[in-house]
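Revision sheet: structure tokens.
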Amino acid sequence: MNEKKFFSTRNITYLAVLMALVILFQVLSSFMKIGEASLCLVLVPIVLGGILLGVKAGIFLGLTFSIVVLISLLGNPLSMAIMAEHPVFFPLSTLFRGMAAGVVPALLFKLVAKKNKYVATFVAAAAAPIVNTGIFILSMLAMSGALMNVMGDAYPESSALYVIIVVLVSFNFFIEFALNIILSPAIFTVTKVVERRRNRG
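Predicted:
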């Protein structure tokens, strides 16, 4: 997709709607919970945008997601304590994580769709939470000293890896992953409808 085509009126409209959904779902995730785990739908519009509009849309939507996350973390004592020790790496890793969660699914869809678009949709949907959580774990490990300075008293016998995976990641990853997989057929249906409208117009 060339730049002129990407910035068409129709694509900008799609992107604006998807960005609004990213913001809405990320804000709502704080209130929608299963036990202590957030019911997070934010990766769905990011995947959908990457499939429909390509890598550039993945970057825009992932960046939107990251910015909302950073804003929401401003009132979080744990995040603020870690950011105090890593004022550059913490926000940069958060921004990178969001953009990667948009770019990687878009690239994987483009690659797998040459064989089967339905399978490609599942692959893209599964990749988003894996990339998002994987980079989160790696970035937290890189800042494990600051993390354990804050949480070490609560988990004195635990390693940083245990605290990151069990305490911070916990069931959230599995819920995000399951939701993306469950909603994959819906994502596929939406992409087919949009493609048909594009072909007509």
